[in-house]
Design a protein that fits this description.
Length: 252
Amino acid sequence: MSGVFQSIRGLALISVLFLTACSGRGPEQVSEGTPITHIMALAEAEVAKGDYEDAADYYNEVERLHPYSVETKYAIIGAAKAYHEEQMYPESRAAAARYLDFYPTTAEAPLAMYLIGLSYYDQIINVERDQKNTFRSLQVFSELIETYPGTEYARLAEDKFGIALNQLAGKEMNIGRYYLKRGHYVASIERFRVVVDDYGNTPQTPEALFRLVEAHLSLGLTGEAAAATALLTAQYPGNAWQLDAAALMSGG
């Protein structure tokens, strides 16, 4: 597994110890003598009511009181899902990472990794803000696609991977436009080239190529502008940005 998972899993151990310490004897109706089936039933009842944090508390009690039981496997992934429903993303990641540590080859392992990626993905903010959650979601989804290819969650990850990649490309475009408007043409070119060269075919690519035409012409680099126009024409013929680039090159 990659470094990002090593760090997540290190935090996972701290998180479960913290949760155990804070829980004391655990939720009401649960003690060391409570049958495991009863605790699971209480957790599932809370899920049915939409009380996801309480459900996670009960699932954690299964893990705490019966760590080597068959039910614990389902309790850990149940807690990860419940925490995610409650938008308690660090707790969801911690539970999902524990699951992957203990059960990396089970049928639910792709779901656990997906929940980790989704916890970052669901916190993606607009392109004017820091994109660390976007980058982390890409890391996790990429590993999910590679580790569990052909699974339902790998397919879901592929869809979200494309959206997250476009988000990062959009961030670069936002910075590039900022430089372009202020006449910092070399800096803007660097940003637009990242979009074209590093992010592949995203919805941002046609505009990035057009902006390269603009920036290069502003510097008097007609050869580079023509090359960007040719690439735009070859890849996106008839696109609005391609037509604007052709007009710009012809002096229109």
